[in-house]
Amino acid sequence: MSRKALVISPELCIGCRGCQTACKSWNQLSAAKTTNKGTVENPPDLTPNLYNKIRYVEVPSESNPVRWLFVSQRCMHCDDAGCMKICPAPGALFKTKEGAVGFDKEKCIGCKLCVAGCPFNIPRYDEKDKITKCNLCSDRIAEGLEPACAKTCPTGAISYGDRNSLIGKAQGAGYQKLYGEADLGGLGVLYAFKDAPKVYGMEENPAIPESVIFWHKVLKPLAYWGLGGAVVASLVHYVAFGPKKDEEVK
Amino acid sequence: MANMVKKANAFEILNHWVMAVSFIILAATGFGFLFHLEQLNSIFGNFNAMKLWHNWSGVVFAVSLFFTIFHYLPVSLSLGSDDIAWISKAGGYFSKKAVVPPQDRLNTGQKLLYLIVLTVGTAIAVSGLIIWLRPAAADIRKWVLLSHLVHNIGFVLMVTIIPLHIYLATLANPGTFRIMVYGTVPLEWAKKRHAKWVQKMGF
Amino acid sequence: MTNHWIDVKNADVILVMGANPAENHPISMKWIMQAREQRGAKLIVVDPRFTRTASKANIYAPMRSGADIAFLGGMINYILKNRLYFREYVANYTNAAYLVNPDFKGPGQLDGIFSGYDEKTRKYDKKTWAFQLDEKGLPKKDMTLKDPNCVFQLLRKHYSRYTLDKVSAITGTPKEKLVEVYKTYGSTGKPNRVGTELYAMGWTQHTVGTQNIKAMTIIQLLLGNIGLAGGGINALRGESNVQGSTDHALLFHLLPGYLPASKASLVDLKTYIEKLTPKTKDPKSVNWWGNRGKYITSYLKAIYGGNATKDNDFGYAYLPKLNEGQNGSWLVLFDQMFKGKFEGFFAWGQNPACSGANAGKVRKALTTLKWMVNVNLFDNETGSFWKGPDMKPQEIQTEVFQLPCSSSVEKEGSLTNSGRLAQWRYKAVEPIGEARPDSEIMNELYFRVKKLYQKQGGKFPAPIINLTWNYGEKGADGKIKKLDIHRVAKEINGYYLEDVFDKKAAPPKQIGKKGHLATNFVTLQADGTTSCGNWIYSGSYTEKEDKVINMMARRGKKDIGGLGMYPEWAWCWPVNRRILYNRASVNPDGKPWDPKRTVIKWNPNKLDPKTKKPAPGWDGDVPDGPAPPMADEKGKYPFIMRADGMGAIFGPGLADGPFPEHYEPLECPVQENPLSKKHRINPTVKLFYGTTGPHDEPKKEGGSAEDIFYSCDIRFPYVATTYRVSEHWQTGVLTRHEPWQMEMMPQQFVEIGKELAAEKGIKNGDKITVSSGRGKVWAIAMVTDRFKPFKVMNATVHQVGLPWCFGWQYPENGSGGDSANLLTPTIGDANTLIPETKAFMVNIEKA
To answer: What CATH number is given for C705-846 in this structure?
Structure first.
């Protein structure tokens, strides 16, 4: 199956947060008791019960009092996912056939390493220390439906579909390059930004933390080589030099 | 029966075994996590149980590591010219003719091993606790990543060094292993290998 | 809406003023953004606050609340000065060429008023506003538009006073922004350019609300934007079915289908028809309201059935009558209630204790009631008013009945959206507990009230006893067991009670069979042979070839010309016409002004689909009448609902003047009207407190202390406005019980500009008190760049804004705050009495 993706277009997003509610509704996530902190944005951060949140970004504008941008924050469904890379529990995080990063709370061991391994700081853990995050409504997309957020979006700011054709469509609409097109092996949630990503509060070149890469590329093999080497060296030594027999010791 | 001298008391022996067993569990589960070894499920049941084994073995390991301080740290820190000479002769492991300088209760290799185990073990324990307990801090994700790195570097060092230690304490040096069983060694055996210690003890 | 939601995608320029669709009508943004993205349309947002809609605008122009007419007047002036108007359209389709009585004088000559004003009655004698008539009784015209008494020249004269400098000084909008907006919107005066306007409560809830819209109508007529796809004047309705309830006579002065309510002076049906039916002597004018007699008679037949006979004047006497000059609008009702004139009150699907202007007064008014019935999904601030803040329950005698009703998804029925599209909806789930659909509650109520009248007689039982109520199978007690909503829909559509013939045809042609559902309102009769509950809905539930069809339940997806009209999707009043006044979308020869946006087109080669014989006619949308184009001998004018068939640039029908004139809100930051010293506020509004705007000590003249207001008063120095947010629905009764919505928008807030906040030492997130002459509320300060200070008449004016979706009753711990309507004044529009809640004065202090 071809990889599926979302394209999020802040230019089309009106900040109505229909997607924030639709996500909660479909995934049956409870609400938190919040207070108004002097901003429309609420809750202040993703939580185990908030997979998708609209960030309200205010940046200076020349012609207007302010430039107000609305950006959906959620799991990016990286092809090369930091969370999956660092996860010690097989099957806790997995790729669905549509290319989404799914999670299985049964298999999650609650180590929370994924929280640190994610370049976008997305995963949260629930009261049982199990991972929670957007899973691209994997139950819906498996049935050929679009994710709840895309379904409810009134303006088409969240569009779901075949990743390649979405990219093609965006190019047709004048977006030379989508955010996440090539990052991390290609994100499953792409952003049609008109300006530099940092304007929208996103990192320019998102990447899996270097330490995780180093661990993955160097330390993991070294662990094998180290253990194996030690055993082999011992054997070789035993054969070549033999034990220090008492009578030989001076 | 030859003249025996006591080299390790019961507590030291017990502590060493506790450490050894916890280490093996830690190393095995560690490999399991690292390489998603689902075969280990036949031992631990599942990865959730494995994580419990790993974490609590870590606690046991850390406690036993703490007690080793009383057993090995003072002697390990008493490094001198003899130790340098020992190193220059590679402890005599690569030549039957080499004559190594007289050694204390622990030989230079054992001292160094201990210092490494103490340092790396502490680092692993502390980093493990940080990953496990995630103390509230603004940049906890960075701390966890650092801990993850430290934990894994420590892991690589440990799984490399400890097998060597096991080899050296068993096959490579007949007569050594009994210390961890009976705590005693023949005086003559000790004199050859730990002359300084034997001397200090007044035998 | 003259047009419809989807049609917004066809616009070249979209002016959003007096509305905030991104937050209150999110789905409309789909079409707005489509117009922007796909046709490069320009979105202009004019609003005191930089809203979520403004964030999507090509041009945002800030404007002080209550200065819309100044802003739009400036635009009219700009359009005329720069000759941006669509001359052919203006000359042919509007009353621009009409000559007005030479005695007519405007506010420029009379210091703020039009000729004919009577200060005592606060009303106009409109004699001088009349058109000059020729010997045939038709308005005199000057097609060159040069006569100084012609509407076009009067318009020019009137708005020449609205110079850029003056407008900027009144509105606080920077001059260059004004020019940018005027130029961009003015660009739609070309035949191939179309602009649309979207408004909502930001325009209506002012003392000059009707005139705000009238001003835009003038602009749209000048630019030739009415009747075209992508054009029109589009009211964004605040609830999904407000259009439907308005169509069905929600307002006190109307009967269903915008027939005027009866009043005492209209003693019988003949008088009603004679007095209220507009007449024209112009053969080219369709004057559709000339059919009023058919519609009122069919209406009476619908509600009184067999009890409405020729002999009893079709039961006309049963209709409730307004006394002469009686006003039953919201403000007046609650004022009367406040004064103890009511015994009982049905609060049906509403929450006046939060939604009503000057909610503190409304809450006090409720205490005077003997009984109140609160029909709602949840208890609310209205149902529990007696235990609200500052109430003494032990002193309140009101007995409150709470009737739980089902929600919109728990019942079947039709719903009419802003675009007049009536869509049938089905029941998704059963109502919870004892909740019942409103119609079932009404059925029960009707049965019981009728029984009482039958038993006890009462003063005038006939109107109730004689009502038809054939909405289902009756039990032994005569009560409908289960109300069949389809029968209601059919009654609204209407029936042929006899065989009906077109008597104009020779020989008379049968157009309706006895006992069948009416085809449409064209076939309704004034002789009692047809019934129709609401003439504009005639055709919504009809018969085709003897098969009953619920047109509102249709779900066809065929379109016409890619314009998004979807004529087979549900059903649109009138007669499934998707764009009103569409005859104005073509030139007098019937050719579309813009062939790329063909709404209708005259087709001289059209064939009759059945006989295949030539039958010239219209292609496209259902035209405003089948008559040939205007230039044809038998042609008709495009604005068929107007007696003269012309778009009214000069509108003598309104209470406050034929041209919109800027007046300040009741409470405003300036001492006097910058345009005229004498009349600060609309001279024709009904005053509840005092006769003049008190600048210092308010005087009590016939009003109550609750109606007090403070204009240009140092104690209340900041302009305020109220609004809704995407996250809550109206007063929040539905959404405050919805934890997901509360999580996003948990508490009352007030948006304050950074400059004002700095002045007052207020920090973002501080709890502050907002107060007006009527009351106060606490709110969390949202210190923001989205409000900027205005430069009004050389002074700095700050504006703040707060939503009215919160109430004390829920959340139960009071953490949400209370309604912003505790602050708003008791004053309404001169024509409609819609309360002025969008511009008033407040103070803010740290709590």
So the answer is: 2.40.40.20
Name the amino acid, one letter, at C32: I
Pairing of strands C259-260, C344-348: unpaired
Q: Tell me the mean pLDDT in the region C247-276.
A: 96
Report the gap between the CA of A21 and the closest CA in chain B (Å): 28
One-letter amino acid at C326 equals Q
pLDDT, one tens digit per residue, over A11-41 is: 999 999 999 999 999 999 999 999 999 999 9
Instruction: Write down the architecture of domain C330-465 according to CATH.
Output: 3-Layer(aba) Sandwich (3.40)
Question: What is residue C704's predicted lDDT score, i.e. its pLDDT?
Answer: 82
If you average pLDDT over residues B173-200, what whole number do you get? 91
- Per DSSP, the three-state class of C781 is strand
Pairing of strands C371-376, C344-348: parallel
**Minimum distance, in Å, between the CA of residue A112 and any CA atom of chain B:** 8
- pLDDT reported for residue C325: 87
Q: List chain A residues with CB under 8 Å of B140.
A: 116
CATH class assigned to A4-200? alpha beta
Handedness of CA C740, C743, C747, C752 (dihedral sign): negative
Helix (H, G, I), strand (E, B) or coil at C709: coil
Query: Given a cut of 70, is residue C696 above it in pLDDT?
Result: no
Q: What would the pLDDT profile of C344-401 be if each residue is shown by its tens digit? A: 999 999 999 999 999 999 999 999 999 999 999 999 999 999 999 999 999 999 999 9
Q: Is the peptide bond before C574 cis (omega within 30 degrees of 0)?
A: yes
Average pLDDT over residues B48-56: 97
Radius of gyration of chain B (CA): 19
For this complex, say whether ipTM is above 0.85: yes
Domain ranges in chain B are: 4-201
Q: Among 3.40.50.2300, 1.10.3720.10, 1.20.950.20, 3.40.350.10, name the CATH number for the domain at B4-201.
A: 1.20.950.20
Where along chain A do its domains lie? 4-200, 210-248
Per-domain boundaries in chain C = 6-240, 244-323+487-548, 330-465, 705-846
The pTM assigned to this predicted structure is 0.94
SS3 C408: helix
Whether the pLDDT of residue C611 is over 80: the answer is yes
Which residue in B129, B145, B171, B176 has the most chain A C-beta atoms within 10 A of its own C-beta, making it the best mutation to test that interface?
A: B145
Q: Which of C49, C55, C785, C802 would you mutate first to test chain A, the one with the most A CBs within 10 A?
A: C55
Gap between the Cα atoms of A128 and A108, Å rounded? 10
> For helices B10-35 and B140-169, what crossing angle results, to 10°?
120
Give the model's confidence band at B96: pLDDT under 50 very low, under 70 low, under 90 confident, else very high.
confident
How far is B157 from chain A, CA to nearest CA, in Å? 7
Chain A residues interacting with chain C (CB cutoff of 8 angstroms): 11-12, 14-18, 20-21, 24-25, 30-40, 42-43, 58, 63-70, 154-156, 173
Q: Which CATH code, of 3.40.228.10, 3.90.1150.10, 3.40.109.10, 1.10.10.10, is assigned to C6-240?
A: 3.40.228.10
| Chains near C (3 or more Cβ pairs under 8 Å) | A
pLDDT for B203 beyond 90: no
